Amino acid sequence: MIGAGQAGLSAAHHLARLGFAPGSGFVVLDADARPGGAWQHRWPSLTLARTHHVHDLPGLPFPPAGDDVPVADAVPAYFAAYERRFALPVHRPVRVTAVRRAGDGGFFVEASAGDWTARAVVNATGTWTRPFVPRYPGQELFAGRQLHPVDYRGAAEFAGQSVVVVGGGASAVQLLGEIAEVATTTWVTRRPPVWREEPFDPEAGRAAVALVADAVREGRSPGSVVGVTGLVVTPWVRAARDRGVLDRLPMFDRLTRDGVAWDDGRFVRADAVLWATGFRAALGHLAPLQLRGPGGGIRMDGTAVVGEPRVHLVGYGPSASTVGASRAGRAAAVELRRLLHPDADLSR
Ligand code: FAD
């Protein structure tokens, strides 16, 4: 198992439940120094109230916590308790640098703390370590600061500045709302945002996930689940919209030394450009396996890679949400038990 976020911990829990011995039957290698997956790195103002919902891990509910508690505190505490409760064999900090095929149908796993051999690999490395920033003309000329949400620590550092926020997702909207309280902001997105006035219902959620699942079945890049759900209008978003903070401009054509410019002559001076433009799956260590097809993505059948049933990707594509990751962990464990122990009783 590679990665101890929501997806990795869920898979580890189910592997143990299905009879794989923690420590000898499976181990979890995690690059972070502490429990918490990507949540431990999220900006301090991202409180539980401002997330969509952090789904329970299997077998231990998320303990009640105040709405104002930062996720970067609450989720790592929960994951740490979870690892202890189920005695999960997490080794950290251990960064996997390459996974290669071994002659016997298994794998060599090269890591910062030595090498491992494995009969199967469950990859649960998320996206946080691969922030995505698109290329735009003039990026190298811009004299101000360019940053991604992974670098964001709070609005205070932008006080009195002019900040351009790029991106049509939930992070862009949230950070705009905060930064606009202390700075002048401009919001640019490639497409007009799709606002979802009603709370997100399960049926719409399933439809959104199905779109991403189709993409990975066909070997296309997955995109993000959140990207196809639209932007939920919470009371907080409505207030920002009423203040005019969420009036959006189309994407600029280039950056200049001191701002961003459109071909029609428009120009906005900027001290900082915040690229809230998403993430890609952190799969570089799997490159030696050459899993990517001509569509640029990895063809998947459930959580297994097509043609490589001993490699499972959890928290990837349609399972890139806390609920999806929890379910994918179970699916991968069940499949691996079937594959590696075909005579076992699967009623558990
Ligand atoms: P992660 O939590 O990223 O964990 C991956 C783990 O893998 C990390 O511990 C990392 O150290 C480890 N790792 C990475 N590379 C290596 C390597 N090479 N070797 C060893 N270990 C490695 N989802 C929701 O359901 N609700 C929300 O409200 C929500 N809010 C979000 C807000 C933001 C700002 C973002 C970015 C995402 C949000 N999501 C939300 C998505 C959700 O956080 C993830 O889909 C979910 O947590 C699944 O996590 P994961 O286990 O796949 O990955």
Automatic annotation (TrEMBL):
SUPFAM superfamilies: FAD/NAD(P)-binding domain
GO molecular function: flavin adenine dinucleotide binding; monooxygenase activity
Gene3D superfamilies per the UniProt record, alphabetical: FAD/NAD(P)-binding domain
Domain of life: Bacteria
Keyword Oxidoreductase listed: yes
Keywords: Oxidoreductase
Pfam families: Pyr_redox_3 (PF13738)
Protein name per its UniProtKB record: Pyridine nucleotide-disulphide oxidoreductase
Species assigned in the record: Geodermatophilus ruber
